[in-house]
Amino acid sequence: MKVNYKNTGDSVRAKKHLGQHFLKDLNVAQKIVDGLTCHGGYDKVLEIGPGMGVLTQFLLKKSEYTTFVAEIDTESVAYLKVHYPELAPRIMEGDFLKMNLKESFTEPFGIIGNFPYNISSQIFFKTLEFRDQIPEVVCMLQKEVALRIASPPGNKDYGILSVLLQAFYDIDYLVSVPPGAFNPPPKVQSGVIRLRRNQVKALDCNEKMFFRVVKTAFNQRRKTLRNALKPLGEFPDHPLLTKRAEQLGVAEFVELTKLAQSLQQDIK
């Protein structure tokens, strides 16, 4: 599938293996870019997967920050260099998931993009890894995943990414986007969310154990936590263990993690 834009005379082929669906609705593109608030005072923005620059064209009009793009598709890179020559020195060609962001950015920066749906979770895990450098993220992804990330405790959509991201970011669901806004249209609805870094510098527990407890708890989300967390050991009686994973907020998972840590110490 090729996408043709007026007055360009060329096109970029959407590649299925890269999960590419090119946004064509300019009103939606403008809304996504306007979702950036420069929270935390950053003055650089990295767009992930710009494709043919439907977001990029609006980003470049913003004087508040300097735009960089990360693009793995060589065809898209060539297109961007021709149509946005001023951007050429700031095109980071390659796989975002493999980039050393500390080398590329010495100061805080925002992230924006129409994330490829097949790697959106991996992008968020990398964001968590560099959370002290990334105060804000505005992105479009599969609506189901967007709702899950923004969902509060007690909701059926609430899951692993909800807890891990909400531990360090305040999250807003901004707008839904229908398949017809893309070419080729995806088979699913899309949604735009915004993540803004909260005041939590570090969790009051072992972070690796926190991640492990959250993942283990949701692996068997229909079970009570006493049963779901059995792979981590035999927990002492605690009111939280009578609940299910989706009922707990970040602070309660921190409390459970401390219990898990004490189990590990007892084993030693």
From TrEMBL:
Keywords: Cytoplasm, Methyltransferase, RNA-binding, rRNA processing, S-adenosyl-L-methionine, Transferase. GO terms for cellular component: cytosol. GO terms for molecular function: 16S rRNA (adenine(1518)-N(6)/adenine(1519)-N(6))-dimethyltransferase activity; RNA binding. It holds the Pfam family RrnaAD. The keyword Transmembrane helix does not apply. Its EC number is 2.1.1.182. Residues 28-199 form the Ribosomal RNA adenine methylase transferase N-terminal domain. Its main location: cytoplasm. S-adenosyl-L-methionine binds at residues 21, 23, 49, 71, 95, 114. It is found in: Cytoplasm. It catalyses: adenosine(1518)/adenosine(1519) in 16S rRNA + 4 S-adenosyl-L-methionine = N(6)-dimethyladenosine(1518)/N(6)-dimethyladenosine(1519) in 16S rRNA + 4 S-adenosyl-L-homocysteine + 4 H(+). The keyword Isomerase does not apply. Specifically dimethylates two adjacent adenosines (A1518 and A1519) in the loop of a conserved hairpin near the 3'-end of 16S rRNA in the 30S particle. May play a critical role in biogenesis of 30S subunits. Belongs to the class I-like SAM-binding methyltransferase superfamily. rRNA adenine N(6)-methyltransferase family. RsmA subfamily. This is Ribosomal RNA small subunit methyltransferase A. It comes from Dyadobacter helix. The lineage of its organism: Bacteria, Pseudomonadati, Bacteroidota, Cytophagia, Cytophagales.
